[in-house]
Every structure is written in C-alpha cells, then in structure tokens.
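Margin note from the TA: students keep mixing up input and output lines. Inputs are the sequences; the output is the structure of the whole complex. Example:
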Amino acid sequence: KAGVTQTPRYLIKTRGQQVTLSCSPISGHRSVSWYQQTPGQGLQFLFEYFSETQRNKGNFPGRFSGRQFSNSRSEMNVSTLELGDSALYLCASTSDGGTGELFFGEGSRLTVL
Amino acid sequence: GENVEQHPSTLSVQEGDSAVIKCTYSDSASNYFPWYKQELGKRPQLIIDIRSNVGEKKDQRIAVTLNKTAKHFSLHITETQPEDSAVYFCAAVYGGATNKLIFGTGTLLAVQP
C-alpha cells in the first residue's frame, strides 16, 4: 500500500507570491491533516479535512487555506507569502473519522526569499 | 488555550540508561495522547499512544504513563540504544473525536555509545 505522497518536495518562492501544495493520502483514508514544522515551533496544526469538509482549523491567518477533493486528495494554499512562512509542511492521513495514528508524508519544504 | 508543554528540550544519556520525557496538556477533555519519533530528515512516526481510560501502556522498551488528574503524561525508554537518538514529540487531541493534534515542541534525545 502506497504511503502519503506530497508534492512538490521542495520549492522556492519570493515574498508576495502564492503557493499550492498537494497531498495524496493512503488509499482508503478519508481524514487529511496539515502541519507546519519549523525549528523553533515544532509541529503546528493548520487544518483537518474529512470527507471534503474542514473539520478543524488551527491558529493561522486567513492566508492559509485548504480543500479536499472527493478522492480524499488535499491541497493547501498560502497566499501573499512572507519570510516567516518558510517551513516544512507535513500532511498526514488517518483511516477514518475517529482519532488514531497519523501517517505522515515526507513533507514539502518551502523557502520564501 | 490549546497547549502542550514538553520537557526537556534536549536530553543526553549513555547507552543502556533510561530516558524520560514529560508533557503537560491544558484541555481536560483530551482523551488521546500519542508519541511520535522523528529521525533526522525523516517523517514523524507513531511509536506509542495511550487513551484516557488507561493509566499506563508498555511496548517492549517503551512505556507511556498518564495522570489525567494532573494532566501529565510521560514517555519512558529503557535500555536506550544509539538508534533511539531522534526528536520525540508528545501530542494531545483537541476538539473531541477528531485528528486535531496539538504537539509539544519536541525533545532531542541523544544516546551516547
């Protein structure tokens, strides 16, 4: 069974641009969560989607948004990029709507110049 | 607020010694407490978890204890080995039966051979 796949793995953007990151969960998993990982802040929750609905949202500005498609694939978008948005963005999926093990992807490393 | 405090931030032990990492959470409604291990350059992976109806859980050299009254939970690793060297994150679920995990800031464990 293929794991969680994130694309792109690395990207460089400049301030003011926008970026879209993609996540394909493990087949059969319907819950997808997104986390931002930085050296100083650890893993911070962005949002969680389940069956195309945003079920939870973290404390990030409105520049951060996401969506989930009918095949459970998810995208997150960051608009008007700032230097502080440089981070590793991790996607994780779980098998159903309950609380359980998160299976993480390898992440998308975003650098904002 | 939604917060998980984790201590220590770094921990160095000799091979064969025990290591203990402690976390405190703020939401009394939290009922799921996983621990993730992240090796350098790799994705976080679940190593053990505990639910609120259990006070302790063991898996070979790893154990987790939970004190719901004090809102504390701890990870215990016995007979540490060099391959245990990694960053360990504790987490607590917020918002009921969802996958909104709030993570601690991580503990860098170094096992000296």
